[in-house]
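hey can u check if this looks right to u? its 135 residues, i copy pasted from the old doc so theres a chance i mangled smth
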Amino acid sequence: MTTPLYALMGFVFWILLLLLGIAVSRVVAVTCGRAQPDSFPAGVPHGGDMYWRLNRAHLNCLENLPLFAAVVLTGFVTGMESATIDVLSRVYIAGRVAQSVTHISSGSPAAINIRFGFFLLQAVCLTWMACLVVS
């Protein structure tokens, strides 16, 4: 397996970890009597701030996975191998995890700015990778 494919699988495992966090939060809330099983409507803020930020971090990952997957898989199918793409895919995943952790940890203006910085890092990495793949 190539480094970008490992990064893609790392992205999938990160999403699964976030999903597990959501599931555990819901199970604990229901079993402790703090919520009913139907207390978690889709797309509507519910739960505490950190829980909702976890939800949003998970959705942010799901929104970005297809883009990263398209670039990585196109590179793989076309036989693209590059040390630059290897580094960019690692940096992209590190930026994605850092953005999620920052998102979950705080909703402060400073955290939002840091999160945006990690988003920009990912955008640069993905754009650069896509350009390399199509060139």
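The two ends are 22 Å apart (CA to CA).
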